[in-house]
Amino acid sequence: MTKIEKAADKEKVGDAECTVYSGPLNDDAAEATFLLKGLLGVVEDSKISATLRTWVDGEGRPRRWILKHEASGTANGQEFALTITWSVEVEKIDATEATVP
Question: At CA 27, angle to CA 55 and CA 5, rounded to 5?
Answer without folding.
Answer: 30
